[in-house]
């Protein structure tokens, strides 16, 4: 069985090497492939990816001709993945691949179709609490839960793992950060069984390169309604 790690990359040269090393060192008893999509970075991210791929055949590198956003980069990675299970991995150091075994366990046990890594539990919650970004995430999660009939604590988490065949069957269209609410809505519409497991989380600020902003939050509200009422999975 193979795990496909889908890594969208945009201007992450300062952290990218370590992220790749952590993914390759993750203690998973599965064949591994890294599907890295460089979204027309302005720094040395693409150079780093090509060097890593030359040194390790498990790494695939896809280049975007123009910058199109995280959602489109993930969708491109989905097209190129060949694994049985997929997980999305950001190219910064907020999420730790050491959490992979706990995230993958419900999938390997056959007790869930999808696993979300929740930042709002245990040690991760200590540093996430009371920030405006966290409050926004909780509001979006609540809205998504109400409209999609779910009981999640962290809809916006990067760590979403699922059966590859299920992921490939979804009609995904979002290019930017709207990918998170869209993916959640599509999974709900497909009747997928979703469970959450707690994960660690090392939150970074905008001075360290965080890219999502308040405008993305406003757009997410609209997209939650859009994918519930106007653009449903067919």
What's the arrangement of secondary structure elements?
Blueprint: E1 2-9, H1 13-24, E2 31-38, H2 45-55, E3 59-63, H3 70-80, E4 85-88, H4 100-109, E5 114-118, H5 123-128, H6 132-148, E6 160-163, H7 164-169, H8 179-189, E7 194-198, H9 214-230
Parallel strand pairs: 1-2, 1-4, 2-3, 5-7
Antiparallel strand pairs: 4-6, 5-6
Helix pairs in contact: 1-2, 6-9, 8-9
Number of strands: 7
Helix content: 40-55%
Strands side by side in the biggest sheet: 3-2-1-4-6-5-7
Nearest-integer average pLDDT: 91
Query: Per the principal axes of the C-alpha atoms, what is the gross shape?
Result: globular
| Low-pLDDT sequence parts | none
Quaternary state reads: single chain
The tally of helices reads 9
How would you spell out the order of helices and strands? EHEHEHEHEHHEHHEH
What proportion of the residues form beta strands (DSSP E)?
Answer: 15-25%
Largest sheet: 7 strands, mixed
Content-based structural category: alpha/beta
Question: Care to describe what's here?
Answer:
By secondary structure, the protein is of the alpha/beta class. 43% of the residues lie in helices and 17% in strands. The chain has 9 helices and 7 strands. The chain has helices at residues 13-24, 45-55, 70-80, 100-109, 123-128, 132-148, 164-169, 179-189, 214-230; strands at residues 2-9, 31-38, 59-63, 85-88, 114-118, 160-163, 194-198. It has a 7-stranded mixed sheet with strand order 3-2-1-4-6-5-7, sandwiched between helices. β1, α1 and β2 form a beta-alpha-beta unit. α6 packs parallel to α9 and α8 (179-189) runs parallel beside α9.
